[in-house]
Amino acid sequence: MADDTRWLDADEQRTWRAFLTAQRLLFDRLERQLQHDAGLPLAYYEIMVQLSEAPDRRLRMSQLADWSLSSRSRLSHAVARLEAAGWVRRQACEEDRRGSWAELTDAGLAKLDDAAHGHVAAVRADLFDPLTEAQLHALREAGEALVAHLTGGAGADGVRPDGPGAPPTAEADGGDGTCGLAAPGPAARAARR
Questions:
Q1: Which three-class secondary structure state does DSSP give residue 100?
Q2: For residues 20 and 131, what is the distance between their CA atoms, to the nearest angstrom?
Q3: DSSP 90
Q4: Is the distance from CB of 49 to CB of 112 less than 8 angstroms?
Q5: Would you tell me how many other CB atoms lie within 10 Å of the CB of residue 166?
Q6: Please, which residues have CB within 8 angstroms of residue 88's CB and are 6 or more apart in sequence?
Q7: Measured between alpha carbons, how far is residue 87 from residues 29, 84, 103, 113 in Å?
Q8: For residue 51, what pLDDT band results from cuts at 50, 70 and 90?
Q9: Single pTM value for the model
């Protein structure tokens, strides 16, 4: 039996292990920060960000599952938890009785705004501050290339034209282009409420 495996050479192995370790350490730190400071898992925070950037702060559950890179059952469980906290409201879809909407409530937006300060500080401290401009540019290019590859060539700047990683449209994010990580100005805050 012939071995066709393209084994990693030493440099590739070093790259792979550095990527895995950095990714695990970063997401573990972000998860702990959000849990400690806001009582939110990172996955719930990401769901709330997706909703905050959607028109009228609501998305179809199926679209939210796709954008969150989550199974529908896992998303349904998360939305049920967010709903119990009063941060998300689920509504039946009148156009399609099998579907439903998830909508970020005013209380959910306030919770997200409160949680965002510490989250952004952690992202800046643990991802942006340690890297040079050249390293950040290389990281962005590598991330975009991997996303395009893993999603079937969706585009140079994100997952899908309308999915996670894609730049939000002005109407989708309240006009501020923040993706949940920049402080919106007063006009953008008013538009998001």
A1: strand
A2: 17
A3: E
A4: yes
A5: 18
A6: 47, 48, 51, 79, 82, 102, 103, 104, 105, 108
A7: 24, 8, 9, 12
A8: very high
A9: 0.77
